[in-house]
Amino acid sequence: MLRYNFKYELRLLLRSRWIQILSLILLVLFGFSTFNGIEKVAKRKSDISIAKQQVQESDEAMLKLLDSVERGLPVSASSWTIPTSPMAVGNYHPRVAAMEPKPMAFVATGQADLFTHYIKPTVSGDDFALNFTEMTSPVQLLFGSFDLAFVIVYLLPLLIIAFTYNVLSAEKEQGSLRLLASQPISIRKWVFQKLILRFFWLSVLVTLSMLIVFLLVGTETFEWGGIVSLLGLTLSYMLIWFALAFLVNLFVGTSAKNAVSLIMLWVIFVLLTPSVINQLANTLYPMPSRTLMINEMREHKAEATKRQDEILDNFLRDHPEYAINDSTQSRNFYHSYMASQKVVKEALEPIVDTYEQQLHKQQKWAKKLQWFSPAIVVQESLNQLAGTSTADYESYRNQVIGFAETWRNHLMTYLYNNKPFAQQDYPSLPNFQFSYIANATIGLSVLVLLLIAGALLAFGFAVQGRLQKRGLLSN
User: Fold this and answer.
1) Residue 91's closest CA among 421, 472, 474?
2) What is the pLDDT of residues 146-175, one digit of tens each?
3) Would 315 be classed as within a structural domain?
4) What residues make up the domain containing 35?
5) Which residues, at least 6 apart from 94, have a Cβ–Cβ distance to it below 8 Å?
6) Residue 270 has what pLDDT?
7) How far, in Å, CA of 422 to CA of 426, rounded?
8) Which of 147, 251, 267, 417 pairs with 462 at a CA distance of 20 to 30 A?
9) Beta-carbon neighbour count of residue 421 at 10 Å?
10) For residue 299, is it within any domain?
11) Which pLDDT score, from 0 to 100, does residue 27 have?
């Protein structure tokens, strides 16, 4: 019977032009979304490359200026920008702290349209005020980016619904259901076989479409291990929607009701559940007022400015390593300013920590409840695969803050020891190297999705449907 169903289903799909139409639609969707994602990644790489090129040119100019100063030649530069001053180096010649994209970054935009991908920390900047956001079109944020993740999470289920909603109801409406019921196979097994065969053909089309698009675009930027993970997530997500279609075909009835029921499930799992989880997180763990936090920061800064001399004395007393050359005898603006900045940072740490703790609680809450929606699981996994997840950007932020502290401490040694910066000190300047966090949850996500799909299919076989109660299904 399975062999007959295989041949019959293939002929039916070819005659109805479902395979041809789906092939064209999938090629267009995957092609456009992949091209769009690659363009965004190229723009990101270009921005980082330009920033690094600017730093390189700035460093070349700095070394030439240092060479002229060390030779005693006249220079046409403002005194406060001459790089013999460590603060001039730290403020006017910062390093680029860049977040280079992963090979699979084209798959999902994730948080990439909300956060910038490179920062130039300066010695006089505030760690808590480092700007990690970028101006983005509110219209784009409202509708999102048309990337591969959008096609897989939002559009692919709609294609599956259109492909499967009337597998059984069409037979009933055409009057051939009673003839099928007389065959030596239960209707549930017959529906299951038809859906599995459609899943097989759609899986082949999806896999081939993706591979064709990737090969046409170019494989030098891709990671084949990542492509295997992408296909695994996509196929397991598709299987869940086929399992839902199996249940709806058995227990609902007419084609119209089936279509409405599947669309309702799509709305619940793809749109409603993520919104509800987000609102619950905001309600249970409300964020402190950012405006009040900024005002409190300003108050601490103003108070520290009034007490700069006292703060500097206390700072040098607590850090004798910075007073080796008796820097108190040649104080300048930066001696007091850097010491006051350190005090302000220590005073503001509890305020910033409170804000970040609430944010982490929200994220932890959302992560716990993500299993209620397969769409959230797949979206988060694709973000991890692309290196654009919330955790990736949080890791980037922490690494940049750590590098900013290293950059500041390195040059403060020159400042408080009254040691001028020289050409020979240039190679020892710290550089930033970003490393992505290890994401080992993609395999777990695939396993959970497969278990959910298996449970839905098992439920369809274990529970009697309304059609069987009417005597239309054989055991």
Assistant:
1) 421
2) 899 999 999 999 999 998 988 877 767 666
3) no
4) 1-272+382-475
5) 55, 120, 121, 122, 407
6) 93
7) 7
8) 267
9) 23
10) no
11) 94
Residue 321 falls inside a structural domain: no
* Under 8 Å between Cβ of 453 and 232: no
DSSP 259-325: HHHHHHHHIIIIIIHHHHHHHHHHHHSPPPPHHHHHHHHHHHHHHHHHTHHHHHHHHHHH-GGGGTT
Q: Is the Cα torsion angle 232, 236, 241, 242 positive or negative in sign?
A: positive
- What's the chain's length in residues? 475
**What's the pLDDT at 30?**
95
Ramachandran area for residue 76 (φ above 0: left; ψ -120 to 50: alpha; else beta): beta
CA 245 to mean position of chain CA atoms: 30
DSSP 93: S
pLDDT at position 467: 46
Over the stretch 185-201, which tens digit does the pLDDT of each residue have? Answer: 677 887 888 899 889 99
Whether residue 79 is contained in a domain is answered as yes
Q: How many CB atoms lie within 10 A of CB 42?
A: 13
Contact 340, 307 (CB under 8 A): yes
Q: Are 246 and 457 in contact (CB under 8 A)?
A: yes
Query: For residue 206, how many C-alpha atoms fall within 13 Å in the half-sphere facing its CB?
Result: 26
**Which residue, among 241, 239, 242, 256, has the nearest Cα to 169 in the 3D structure?**
256
Mean pLDDT by 10 residues, the chain (475 residues): 67 79 93 91 92 93 90 82 87 92 90 86 68 51 74 95 85 64 69 88 94 82 83 96 92 87 94 88 76 70 65 62 51 66 70 77 82 91 91 90 89 83 91 85 90 92 58 41
Helix (H) or strand (E) holding 118: strand 118-119
- Within 10 angstroms of residue 398's Cβ, the number of other Cβ atoms is 10
Domain tally, the chain: 1
Nearest to 432 by CA among 35, 55, 3: 55
Question: Which pLDDT score, from 0 to 100, does residue 472 have?
Answer: 43
Q: How many angstroms separate the CA atoms of 269 and 260, rounded?
A: 14
Tokens of 309: 């001399």
279 vs 393: CA distance, rounded Å? 22
The answer to whether the CB of 270 falls within 8 A of the CB of 373 is yes
| Residue 247 and residue 328 in contact, taking contact as beta carbons nearer than 8 Å | no
- Tens of pLDDT, residue by residue over 350-371, are 777 777 787 788 888 888 888 8
Collect contacts of 409-412 with beta carbons under 8 A, ≥24 apart. 411/86, 411/87, 411/89, 411/90, 411/123, 412/86, 412/123, 412/322, 412/338
The two tokens of residue 452 are: 């959910």
Which helix (H) or strand (E) segment holds residue 226: the answer is: helix 224-251
